[in-house]
Amino acid sequence: MAIDQLLEYLAAGLFGLAVLHTFSTKYFLNLAHRSPRHAGLWHLLGEVEVVFGFWALVLVTSMSMMFDLHHAIAYLESQNFTEPLFVFVILVIAATKPVLWLVQEVVSRIAHVLPFSRQLSLYLLCLTLVPLLGSFITEPAAMTLAALMLKERFYQKNISSRMKYMTLGVLFVNVSIGGVLTPFAAPPVLMVAEKWGWDIAFMSSSFGWKAACAVVINGLLMTLWFKRELLQLSETEHVKNETRMPIAVVAIHLLFLGMTVWFTHYPVVFLGLFMFFLGYTEAYQRYQDRLMLREGLLVAFFLAGLVVLGGMQQWWLQPILAGLNSTVLFFGAMSLTAITDNAALTYLGSLVSGLSPEAKYALVAGALTGGGLTVIANAPNPAGYAILKDCFDEGAISPSGLFLAALIPTAIAAFFFLVF
Question: Does 46 lie in the same domain as 117?
Fold first, then answer.
C-alpha cells in the first residue's frame, strides 16, 4: 500500500474518532470528577470545541512522522483558514454590548406590537427574526446574538431541560437555513456562490422564501409547544434598568461589523480592522462588557481542526456526491452534514465537475437542512454551544439530545426545500 493511500485511510480513521469523541465529551467530564489528579486534562478533552483541534494535531504529527515536518507544514499551508478566522472576529464583534443592545431594542419594540404576551413574543422573535437577520449580519453573528438573548431571558431561568434542548435544536436549524436570503451570510452558500454565479436574486427566489417559511413555522410551533412554561416565566420577569447606549457607539460597532462582512474573503484586512476594534473597545470600556475572546478562540480552534481533518476526506466524499441523483443527493448531503461541516461539504461539491443545476441545488439545500443536527454540522453552531452549554446539566450538551431535538425542525425545512 502506497504511503499516500495509507495517510488517507489514517485521516479518515482519525476523522471518525473525532466524530465519536464529540459524542463522548460527557464521559471525559465525568472522568474529571472521578480523577482530580488529571482533572484539567479530562476537562480539556471534554470540551467539544477542542475535539477536532486535538485530532488534527494527531494527524499533523502522524504526517510529519510518515513523511517529514516540511510535508506537514506544506499541507497546513495549503488549507484555507479564512472561515475560522472570520467566525472568530465576527463572534467577538457581534457579542459586544452595543450590538446586543441594538438587537434587543429592535426585538423588544417589535414584541410590543405582536398580539402575544411579552415573553411569548420575545421567545418567538429570538427563534425567527434573529436567525433571518443572519442573511445580512452573517450566520455566526446571528447565532451569537440569538444565543446570548436566549441565555439571558430564558436559559438562566428555571426552564425545563426538555425546553432547553428543543429550543437549541430549533435555533441551530433556523440559523442554518436563515442566512440564505443573500449569498454571503451562510458558510455553505459562501463556498459556492461566486463559482456557481448565485447572486441575491437567485438566493432569494430559490432558497430564501422557503427558508423564511420554515423558520417562522419552526418558531411558532416551539412557542405554542412551550406556551404554558413561557407564560409562567413572565410572572417573575425582571427588567434591568440600564443606561441608554449612545447612538454613536452603536454606529461605530455596526461599522466594524459591516466592514468585517464586506471583507469576508480577505483575512489580512478584517484581522487588521479587528485590531483597531480592540483598541476602540479599550478606549471606551464603560460601554463594554467582557469581550468573548476565549469563546471566539475556542470556536475558531474547533473550525480550524475541522478544516485540517476535512481536507483529507475528499477521496471518499467526492465519489459519493458525484454518483447520486438530485433527491438522493439532498438526503445524502443532509446526512453527511451531521458528521462534517456543511461548508466543507459544499466546497467539496464545488470541486465536482459537471454537476447539473438540480444537483447543485440539492447539495446546498441538503447541507443547509442538516445544519442543526449536530454541533459540527454548521460553522456557527460551536458559537451557540459555547454560549449556552453552562446552562445545561454538568455544563455539557448531550449530542444525542441535540440530534433528537433538531429532527422535527429539520423535517420541516426539508419539506419546504424539496416540495416547493
Answer: no
Burial of 139 (0-12, 13-18, 19+ CB in 10 A): buried
Domain of residue 68, residue span:
3-78
3-state secondary structure at position 305: helix
Do 338 and 401 belong together in one domain? yes
Burial (CB count within 10 angstroms: exposed 0-12, middle 13-18, buried 19+), residue 65: exposed
Which helix (H) or strand (E) is 340 found in, with range?
Answer: none
The count of other CB atoms within 10 Å of the CB of residue 232 is: 14
Buried b / exposed e along 264-300 (16+ C-beta atoms within 10 A): beebeebeebbeebeeebeeeeebbeebbeebbbbbb
Structure confidence by residue, pLDDT tens digits, 55-70: 999 999 999 999 999 9
- Same domain flag for 70 and 90: no
Per-residue H/E/C for 395-411:
HCCCHHHHHHHHHHHHH
| Residue 121 near residue 237 (C-beta atoms within 8 A) | no
The model's pLDDT over 173-222, given as tens digits with 9 standing for 90+, comes to: 999 999 999 998 898 998 888 889 999 999 999 999 999 999 999 999 99
Q: Give dist(CA 79, CA 196) in Å, integer.
A: 21
In this structure, what C-alpha cell is assigned to residue 239? 427588567
> Which among 145, 316, 164 is positioned nearest to 229, based on CA atoms?
164
User: Do residues 118 and 51 share a domain?
Assistant: no
Residue 146 identity (one-letter amino acid)? A
301 Cβ contact partners less than 8 Å away, ≥ 6 residues apart: 49, 50, 53, 84
Residues (pLDDT < 50) of the chain are 235-239, 241
Q: Which three cell numbers stand for residue 52?
A: 477536532
Q: Which among 155, 182, 178, 177 has a CA at the least distance from the CA of 166? A: 155
* Domains held by the chain: number: 2
Among 78, 102, 122, residue at a domain's last position = 78
Map 33-77 to HEC letters: HHCHHHHHHHHHHCCHHHHHHHHHHHHHHHHHHHCCHHHHHHHHH
